[in-house]
Amino acid sequence: MSYVLPELPYGYKDLAPYISEEQLTLHHQKHHAAYVKNTNEIVEKLEKARKEGTESDMKSALKSLSFNMGGHILHSLFWTNMTPKGNGAPKGKLAEAIKNDFGSFEQFKKEFTQTAASVEGSGWAALVYDAQSKNLLLMQLEKHNVNVYPEARILLVLDVWEHAYYLDYKNARAKFIDAFWNIVDWDEVSKRFK
């Protein structure tokens, strides 16, 4: 079993001016690539220990695997929920669900922005569909793997680790979040919702 760094669905220059070529290249080729590399190394280490019948520090290995695999999966979703063109606002059934669960698209945007801005330290903001309640919810993920709603399907995710924006926005996370709205791919988010 091997995990691979996905190619971006656009060029490194294509999200400018909202995300610069330098920022996007570093984020994808260094940070995301490291999570993929680490995930593969941990899986290989666990498989080797299993084959050899040797002891492994399962708690440490599985915690590290969760962190790195979470980073890989969330980044893979993040890249594909952005597009150079942006497409304004959701349409169809997703737009209806947002209106039903948040009152309006404007209210959803306000709450999602607050969710992203208030992540403590490193983490993510996510719009999720909860299978049990059949509602859209907002979720903050600390790091890549803490505070996950177990049956929630991630529809839209925003990386608010400093490595996602520091070159372009320094410590102005709020400016990065505002810029993000210009490149959200609502068609992709709608596909995930369906």
For the record, the CATH class of the largest domain is Alpha Beta
Strand order within the widest sheet? Answer: 2-1-3
Number of helices: 7
CATH topology name of the largest domain, in short, is: minor pseudopilin epsh fold
Report the average pLDDT across residues.
94
The fraction of residues assigned to DSSP E strands is 5-15%
Q: Top keywords for this entry?
A:
194 residues, alpha+beta, Helix Hairpins, minor pseudopilin epsh fold, 2 domains, three-stranded antiparallel beta sheet
Describe the protein's topology:
Blueprint: H1 21-52, H2 58-80, H3 92-102, H4 105-117, E1 123-130, E2 135-142, E3 152-159, H5 166-169, H6 173-180, H7 186-193
Antiparallel strand pairs: 1-2, 1-3
Helix pairs in contact: 1-2
Tell me about this structure.
This protein is of the alpha+beta class and 194 residues long. The protein folds into two domains: 21-80, Orthogonal Bundle (Helix Hairpins); 92-193, minor pseudopilin epsh fold, CATH 3.55.40. It has helices spanning 21-52, 58-80, 92-102, 105-117, 166-169, 173-180, 186-193, and strands spanning 123-130, 135-142, 152-159. The chain has a three-stranded antiparallel sheet with strand order 2-1-3. The longest helix has 32 residues, at 21-52. The protein is globular, with a radius of gyration of 18 Å. The mean pLDDT is 94.
Please summarize what this structure is:
This protein is α+β, with helices and mostly antiparallel strands and 194 residues long. The chain is 51% helix and 12% strand.
